[in-house]
Amino acid sequence: MKKEQSDWIVTENNHEPIISQELWDRVREVEQSVSRGKRSKDGTLKPLSGLLYCCDCGFKMKSAGQNRKNRQGERYRKIFFNCDSYASFGKCACTSHYITQKEIEAIVLADIRSMASLVIADEDTARTAFLSKKEQQTSRQSKADVKKLNDSRHRLAELDSLMQSVYEDKVMGKIPEHLCVNFLQKYEAEQQELRMIVDELEEKLSAEKQDMEDVEEFIRRLKKYIDIQELTRELCLELIEYVTVDEYSADRPRVINIYYKFLDKPLNDKKSLYSDKNS
Description:
Blueprint: H1 21-32, E1 52-54, E2 61-69, E3 75-83, H2 84-89, E4 99-100, H3 101-121, H4 123-135, H5 142-171, H6 177-223, H7 233-239, E5 240-245, E6 256-260, H8 273-277
Parallel strand pairs: 1-5
Antiparallel strand pairs: 2-3, 3-4, 5-6
C-alpha cells in the first residue's frame, strides 16, 4: 500500500553517497543557470555561451563565425555575438549588437580580475563594497530595524500582561465589563499591528543575514580565480548570472553590464530580460 508523502519517514545521510553533496549542489546550480550552452560545430563550448543578452530587446545574443585570413595568409575563424532578434529578423526587430568573442571575454575577464585584486588588497573593503551592491537592491536600515523589532517584541509582551491583568480585574469585579471589553479590543488591535510589524522586520533581517552569506560565498569563489589569465566555462558558470550588451556604435562607448551570482538578482525568465522585469 502506497503511503501519503506526509507519512514518509526520511533519514538523511543513511548510506554512503554516490556523489558528494557539493557536486550535487553544483549540478543543481548549473541546471538553474540561464545558460545551457551550445557547442559549436567543432565541439567547443564558449565560456559565455547562453549568458549574453541584448540590453535593448532583452533576448539572448547568438554566436556566429566568419572565416578570415591573417597577414601571413593563414586561415582562422573569427567568432562574434549578435542580438538573436536582429540576426533572425533584421532591423525591424532590433539593431546590431555585434561584439567579438575576444572583446566581450576581455571585458568580463578584466572586471573579474579587478574584483579579485580588491579582495587580495583589502578583503574587508571588498566585502563592504559587495555588500553595498547587494543592499542597493533593497532599502534597509539595520540598526533602526533591530531596535524597532526589539521594541515591538517588548511591547507585545507588555500587552500580554496587560490583557491578562484586565481579565483578572474583570473576574474579580474591580472593573466593569464594558471597560474590560474596551481595553481588550484596544490591546488586541495593537497586538495585530505589532505582529505584522514583527513579521515584516524578521523577514527583512533574515534577508540581511542571507546577504552576508551570499557575499561570503562570492568571495570564496572569487578567490579560486585570483590568478586567472583567461575566461573559462567553469569560471563563468560559478560567478556570472548574465551579461547585457549595448547596441553597437562606432561613435560612442558601449555599455556592458555584468551581473554576478550572489551579488545580483537572478532572472526568473531565462529567455528574456524584460518579461522578467515586468512580471
